[in-house]
Write a structure and sequence with these properties.
Elements (H helix, E strand, L loop, with lengths): L1 E8 L8 H9 L8 E6 L3 E7 L12 E5 L2 E12 L2 H10 L9 H12 L9 E9 L4 E6 L8 E5 L2 E5 L2 H5 L7 E3 H9 L13 E2 L4 E6 L2 E6 L12 H19 L6 E4 L4 H16 L6 E7 L17 H11 L2 E7 L1 H5 L1 H11 L7 H13 L5 E3 L4 H5 L8 H5 L4 H4 L14 H7 L1 H15 L8 H30 L4 E3 L5 H8 L3 H4 L7 H6 L6 H5 L11 H14 L13 H8 L9 H16 L3 E3 L1
Parallel strand pairs: 10-19, 14-15, 14-17, 15-16, 17-18
Antiparallel strand pairs: 1-3, 1-9, 2-3, 4-5, 5-6, 6-7, 7-12, 8-9, 8-11, 12-13
Length: 612
């Protein structure tokens, strides 16, 4: 896993722009703490920061393909290609020779063999750029599910690109402007494909190739979800799901550095941990290492709420006993979560004020602690989107709503709360209209099966929305929090083979036992304890410690003492001061305070100009 960046300019000699190109590369140091590289030519500057995972001695980047003493193509690559060994064998049979054992070199030679069609041969998570010196063109490629990020910023004479917005913003040519559409995207909680919030910046869409030539920018999709009639019965489907999972886990355990799993005690992370434990044991490689996040006093003082009926700790420990993992609980308290330095690091990792409060901060702290022991972690992320685990899959009101289902069930993660946003601005932005337009655009994309009607047709739509919109928000969060500390997180449930297969299984089959995620539960029933098989879905934990809310109020109160705040362009500070001065004894709502604090820090630290 790494950080990539670069600059193409067809009218400028970039060999004299080393200082700017280096500054862009330096912003990616958190993603690649092990090594760095910069390649310059008259019209392209390619930068790279490396987190060494496979072939620690080899695999340095940018990696150059040469022939007869001249450069053919230059690659800057982030990610893991899990079928690189098979591809290497195929490429050798086609006459290619290799100097390293890295998957990076396999990707480079795959480009030489298949050109931009190489993406269709890759199984993995990746974002990369190839500068073809022969054609003087750049291609930007992102994995099918969008696990790894990739942004670009077209200029008058070329393009800037990077793993994160900060790499692009390090170039003076990139303006730090957010316009009305950027604000709409930031507040609407919809994740519109290709929109990057900063004006003039775009995100490479999952499964997309962006090509930059002198003539301009072109885009094409090399992969998208497809629909077909599912003909397997339930036993065959369960067997196929398990077979896919066995193969996926085995591939994703390959690493030349210490590896672990993230364990919450839910079905998804428990399945990944149990499958990994089984595979490692079969290979004689010892116990799997696992990590959980917890809060001081959380289990002892837990109070059920609308989203969470049980604490994670007891279930995680059940799984640990069942599979015999080498386990560590990372226990956090409110002082950790409210620490200004930690909150600043989280915002810097995000680049945008779109965080989830203490759920982001705790994830960052969890990953920071894990990084002392492991460099790679396997996660259960995206199983809910694939198998239908969220409450809105099973709530008739949400299913039948004429909007994205997560917008219809209430404020699940504090993203819908706009209480302190200036009301005149909200009326101008028309967030409901923006959400409706985004929803109808997504509806138009849904692949259909001829003759499919009723609940099955609707659940295909709901699944599509989750697999192309909602999952992106969580993958972004996981990538930024993990890579901010140089930890690679792999997401087995995002394997495109599994995603496509389960997407096409009938909804009745996905709920055949009357529960959520029936197919996953059945596929892993032989390796999980009964307590986890019976457990009801519980989202990522949020601290229930009242002192956290008090600390938020105190921080907001201190902020609001200032005469001028950058956030006053967006937030109603009169309402904000009224809220933090409330003395009726009721707990203050956390989401609007989180938004105020984060937004003000972002506008100030990133020197963002709001233009509406």
């Amino acid at each position: 896993m790494c950080g990539i960046t670069g600059w193409v300019d067809y009218e400028r000699d970039l060999t004299g722009a080393r200082e700017i190109a280096q500054a862009m590369t330096d912003t990616m140091s958190c993603r690649g703490p092990d090594d760095e590289g910069l390649w310059l030519s008259p019209h392209a500057a390619i930068g790279h920061r490396r987190l060494a995972i496979i072939d620690l001695a080899g695999g340095r980047q940018p990696m150059i393909a040469e022939a007869d003493g001249r450069d053919l193509a230059v690659l800057t690559y982030s990610g893991e290609v899990y079928n690189f060994q098979e591809l290497r064998d195929e490429l050798v049979s086609r006459g290619h020779s290799f100097r390293t054992y890295s998957d990076t070199e396999v990707v480079l030679h795959a480009y030489l063999e298949w050109g931009e069609d190489l993406a269709e041969h890759l199984n993995g998570m990746f974002a990369f750029a190839v500068w073809d010196t022969r054609k003087e063109e750049l291609i930007l490629v992102r994995d099918r599910m969008g696990i790894k990020p990739l942004y670009y910023y077209p200029t008058h004479d070329g393009v800037l690109f990077g793993s994160e917005p900060k790499a692009i913003l390090a170039n003076p040519m990139a303006e730090r402007v957010v316009d009305a559409d950027g604000l709409r995207e930031m507040l609407a909680f919809v994740k519109t494909p290709e929109v990057a919030i900063f004006k003039g910046m775009y995100e490479v869409r999952p499964g997309q190739i962006v090509k930059i030539r002198r003539e301009g920018v072109t885009k094409r999709r090399y992969w998208r979800l497809t629909s077909y009639e599912h003909t397997d019965d339930i036993p065959a489907t369960v067997l196929n799901v398990r077979g896919l999972l066995d193969d996926i886990i085995a591939r994703q355990l390959i690493s030349d550095v210490p590896l672990c799993t993230l364990l919450s005690g839910g079905l998804d992370s428990s399945a990944v941990t149990a499958l990994a434990a089984h595979d490692l044991k079969a290979q004689g490689l010892g116990r799997v290492r696992s990590f959980s996040v917890d809060f001081t006093g959380y289990t002892e003082n837990f109070k059920p709420d609308a989203a969470r009926s049980t604490p994670d700790g007891p279930y995680a420990h059940d799984l640990v006993r069942h599979v015999g993992s080498d386990h560590t609980d990372i226990v956090l308290d409110s002082a950790d979560l409210i620490d200004p330095a930690v909150r600043a690091a989280v915002l810097r990792a995000r680049d945008l004020p779109v965080g989830m409060g203490d759920m982001d901060t705790s994830l960052y702290l969890l990953f920071r602690a894990i990084r002392s022991h492991s460099t790679v972690a396997l996660s259960g992320e995206s199983a809910d989107e694939v198998f239908g685990g969220y409450q809105w899959f099973h709530d008739p009101k949400a299913v039948n709503a004429d909007t994205f289902p997560w917008l219809a069930v209430g404020d699940v993660v504090g993203q819908l709360n706009l209480d302190l946003v200036d009301q005149d601005l909200l009326r101008m932005l028309d967030i409901p209209g923006y959400q409706a337009d985004s929803y109808h655009d997504a509806m138009a994309e849904v692949p259909r099966v001829p003759g499919e009607t009723g609940l099955q047709a609707r659940m295909r739509e709901i699944s599509y929305f989750n697999l192309t919109r909602f999952v992106q928000m969580l993958l972004d969060r996981k990538d930024r929090m993990s890579m901010a500390v140089g930890l690679e997180v792999r997401v087995p449930f995002c394997d495109h083979r599994l995603v496509t297969y389960v997407f096409n299984a009938p909804w009745a089959m996905k709920t055949f036992d009357g529960r959520e995620k029936s197919l996953l539960r059945a596929a892993c029933a032989d390796i999980l304890p009964d307590s986890i098989l019976r457990r009801v879905k519980s989202p990522y934990p949020s601290t229930q410690d009242p002192t956290y809310g008090v600390a938020l109020r105190d921080a907001a109160r201190e902020l609001l003492r200032g005469d001028y705040l950058p956030s006053q362009e967006i937030m109603d500070l009169v309402d904000a001061r009224r809220l933090v001065s409330r003395s009726d004894g009721r707990p203050l709502p956390r989401p609007p305070l989180e938004r105020l604090l984060q937004l003000d820090a972002w506008l100030k630290d990133y020197e963002v100009k709001v233009s509406v």
